[in-house]
Amino acid sequence: MLEVDLAGVKLRNPIVIASGILGISRGLFLRLDREGAGAVTTKSVTLRPRSGNPLPNIVELEFGLVNSMGIPNPGIELMCEEIRSAVPHMSVPIIGSIAPTSAEEAKTMASLLVESGASAVEVNTSCPNVQDIGINLINKSVELVRSIDREVDVPILVKVTPHVQDVPSFVRTLSEAGADGFTAVNTLKAMVIDVDLLRPVLGGVVGGLSGPAVRPVAVRFIYEIRKTLPGAAIIGTGGVENWRDAAEMIMAGADAVGIGTALRRGLKVINEVTDGLRSFLIERGLTLDDIRGVVP
Ligand code: DHB
User: Fold this and answer.
1) Is residue 34 part of a domain?
2) Dist. CA 212 → ligand 1 center (Å)
3) Domain of residue 118, residue span
4) Alpha helix (H) ranges present in the chain?
């Protein structure tokens, strides 16, 4: 009863492992599948391997995490090898996340991911931690999406930064360029200072805020995207810790729900959320379709 159609990709349940969390190796893809995820998103990959920012690269606050990872990843070739060896053993789709610096790179990486077995491509143009890859590319998103759209025939999802002001015009323009859906939202650019040491906590100085603090922002983005584009696929992500948070995102209009920061409590969170959603629907005699976007 939890099956979802995400722009034509079939998910057994709406829970998608968000990018940047665990989607980095064959072993982890298979483990997340076994633990009940509906889909797994890879860490954002770049054309060449990156080692990321200096440590410390993560700080836990009472309402979420701030990370300054800097897109550490093995590069597109190694990521594709991991995907290729995992896919024949997986019962859920892999969403390949790319962090390109140009339209040329976007097209190359998207087609390599799809050849390796990724079922959809997520375009991350909103990493808060890397100058030439991240938030500065918001205005280039259209060009990137257009070039990927000409190259691959799987769904293209754009990861939306909460720094976008005019959500309706942003998503409408991207949809016209070929985006099939949106993952909303990415982290919010943030900073934490150690007052004893009189200096920033994070090695990268600034970072991206995730977790419960960003959830109401994500809910508002989902709502605005759904109102603007009733037919777009939406993965709502940002601070989902339990089934009620997931239900809230679906009621705002999400097809599926990303989980990232909550996995710091262990992979059992995945089944807790799907079990809770299922019980809620059964008790109320409702389906996911009944609650999706019910908010007027
Ligand atoms: C990275 C961090 C983020 O918070 C994000 O949203 C995307 C990428 C990173 O630095 O790897």
Assistant:
1) yes
2) 17
3) 4-53+70-189+210-291
4) 26-34, 76-86, 103-116, 141-151, 167-177, 215-228, 243-252, 268-284, 288-291
